[in-house]
Design a protein that fits this description.
The complex is a heterodimer of chains A (about 210) and B (about 375). Chain A is an alpha+beta fold and about 210 residues long. Chain A has helices at about 5, 20-30, 50-55, 70-75, 90-100, 115-130, 145-155, 185-195; strands at about 35-40, 40-50, 100-105, 110-115, 135-140, 160-170, 175-180, 200. Chain B is of the alpha/beta class and about 375 residues long. Chain B contains 11 helices and 7 strands. The chains are: A alpha+beta (about 210), B alpha/beta (about 375). The interface of A and B includes residues 132, 135 and 136 of A. The structure holds zinc ion. Zinc ion binds near residues 160, 162, 247, 249 and 291 of chain B.
């Protein structure tokens, strides 16, 4: 999954000369929180609802006046951006590390989209396959060649379609695999997997 | 009135499939052996047009083609030909026979019958455009639509262990249909939906209620939240009729899920459902079967349902002859009494935590829907 698959476009933008009030109204009307600031096709900065609220709060008496101060006085410059072909996990990592809520997406210097935290949550939902009717299996595998293939091979042999498969490293040389399968019979699958020697964490084994 | 015909058993995905017609064969033979079986009313099968009141034409076309043994390249896209819902010759008609039974129940209610028990159907996973989870056509929704088109307000109650997703989505934007599903949490269990925050859309907002329960929920906790939620919702909604999917797969013996209801809880549930129908729906109630994959458990649960429905005294032991025949045929012992033994499974250490979480879920649900439901 790439940034271009989850980004929003076209992007709502604002000019540097717009007043804070105009920018805030735009944010409210469009129900968004991030506004790239663009002049002559070039990205100059980005301004968020939070930037405006902090700048114009009554707790900040020296702050700029909302109706006369311009966006360019408050916006963040040197914006962190993404490319449409960046993997989504790369975008997520940059946003997490820099503690920012969105990434304008640039291609050859042009603003072609924007990715926000919400878009990444949507991506996560799609990655986990929860949007399809399915049951969920969780299996702990030794972190070595062929284990995941053994798991998916078993499911294929039972005629079970896999909607999604996530795996992530665990402590102690294990990999945790979370599989969403198109079947009501996850319990019977789990029993079969246990008989094959798999460490199935969910569904749990009934104690009788 | 009881609705049933032997052709229900044509709905058969093969010998190793959990949704087995053997359940109906066991159930009806047990009721006969107990001497309580009365000749049921035999319904006509539903027509193609009746199925199309809730399903897309393109789904129906594929079911028909697959049913004739034709190769359909995009079958899986429609939820068919999968491990759960394989195709078999005559599938379209077999599914329409089940739909016909539930629809006939709706017709009977409209012509003045109070209580109808349909000994089949309950295919609550089938969706507008897709078969799913053993369910080809949604008999419940066809019946519900027939009732709402005749001007009735319908409360749908689903006690199957799985979320009643098909019925919920088909009526998701309808104001005149209240859906209420109690099920094991979809965090792990098929179909993965049925969260408290799925409350309906548009005109249907606040009219779709989901109570996802913790795995290993037992009788007491289930009944506690059921008795708090269901009469509350019905009193607010004021339905004309109650449609109930009485799946038996929340029973502790069920191989596909993890709720731990015993027959004692089911007896209480069935009595409460009839009471609620009297109190909140003018006595009108249409009950269907549903999931239930432990032959031993499901058959006893539905035998209980039949007795409670008719107000019959409950037998203690099951007839010896019947037990002998079926133990021989299945090659394993069966519970010899109608009710489960006392304390049938070891204690659940997490019980207090489970009870607490279920109460919390109920609280979240009522907070979410009360502003809408009470208008
Ligand atoms: Zn079920």
């Amino acid at each position: 999954m790439l940034v271009k698959d989850v980004m929003r476009s076209p992007v709502v933008t604002v000019g540097p000369e717009a007043t804070l009030e105009e920018a805030y109204r735009l944010l409210l009307e469009r129900g968004i929180r991030h506004l790239p600031v663009v002049a002559e096709g070039k990205l100059l900065g980005i301004i968020t609802d939070r930037d405006i609220r902090l700048a114009t709060s009554h707790l900040n008496p020296k702050g700029p006046c909302p109706t006369c101060a311009k966006v360019e006085e408050v916006m963040t410059q040197e914006v962190v951006t993404a490319h449409p072909l960046d993997p989504v996990e790369e975008a997520a990592r940059v946003m997490r590390e820099r503690k920012i809520g969105s990434l304008p997406v640039l291609e050859d210097g042009d603003l072609v989209g924007i990715v926000t935290g919400i878009d990444l949550l949507d991506a996560l939902l799609r990655l986990t396959g929860v949007t399809e009717p399915s049951g969920r299996l969780e299996v702990r595998l030794p972190d070595r060649v062929g284990e995941l293939a053994r798991l998916t091979g078993y499911l294929a042999g039972r005629g079970v379609n896999i909607h999604s498969l996530l795996s992530y490293p665990e402590d102690g040389d294990f990999v945790r695999a979370v599989v969403r399968v198109n079947t009501l019979e996850t319990h019977l699958l789990a029993e079969g997997l246990r008989r094959e020697g798999f460490d199935v964490l969910w569904p749990p084994k009934k104690p009788w | 009135m009881v609705i049933y015909r032997d052709e229900y058993r044509l709905y058969n995905f093969g010998p190793d499939h959990p949704f087995s017609p053997v359940r109906l064969e066991m159930l009806t033979s047990l009721l006969q052996a107990l001497g309580v079986w009365q000749p049921p009313h035999s319904p006509p099968e539903a027509s193609r047009e009746e199925v199309l009141t809730v399903h897309s034409e393109r789904l129906v076309k594929r079911v028909e083609a697959a049913s004739r043994g034709e190769r359909v390249p995009d079958l899986e896209h429609y939820g068919l030909g999968t491990g759960d819902t394989p195709v078999f010759p005559g599938m379209d008609r077999a599914a329409r026979v089940l739909v016909g039974g539930t629809l006939e129940g709706a017709r009977r209610i409209l012509s003045g019958e109070k209580r109808v028990l349909q000994l089949g159907g309950g295919l609550h996973h089938a969706q507008y455009d897709r078969a799913s989870g053993f369910c080809v056509y949604n008999d419940l929704s066809v019946a519900i639509r027939h009732l709402t088109r005749s001007g009735l307000r319908v409360a749908y109650l689903d006690i199957d262990v799985h979320h009643g997703d098909g019925v919920q989505w088909i009526h998701y934007e309808e104001k005149e249909v209240l859906t209420l599903s109690l099920h094991e949490s979809g965090r792990y269990l098929f179909p993965g939906t049925g969260h408290v925050h799925e409350v309906g859309r548009g005109e249907g907002v606040g009219r779709k209620l989901n109570l996802p329960l913790e795995p290993f929920t037992e009788d007491e906790s289930y009944l506690e939240v059921f008795e708090a939620l269901v009469p509350w919702a019905l009193r607010a909604f004021r339905p004309d009729v109650l449609v109930v999917q009485a799946g038996a797969d929340a029973h502790y013996l069920d191989p596909l899920a993890d709720l731990l209801l015993t027959t004692r809880a089911y007896e209480r549930l069935f009595r409460l459902i009839l009471e609620y129908a009297e109190a909140f729906a003018g006595g009108r109630v249409l009950l269907t079967l549903g999931g239930g994959y432990s032959l031993d458990g499901a058959v006893r649960v539905w035998t209980l349902l039949y007795h409670v429905f008719h107000g019959l005294p409950l037998p203690e032991r099951l007839p010896e002859g019947w037990l002998l025949v079926w133990q021989e045929r299945l090659g394993r012992p069966l519970t010899p009494t109608l009710h489960d033994p006392e304390a049938p499974y070891p204690g659940i250490p997490r019980r207090p935590e489970i009870e607490k979480r279920n109460r919390l879920t109920l609280e979240r649900l009522t907070e979410l829907v009360s502003p809408y439901l009470l208008d």
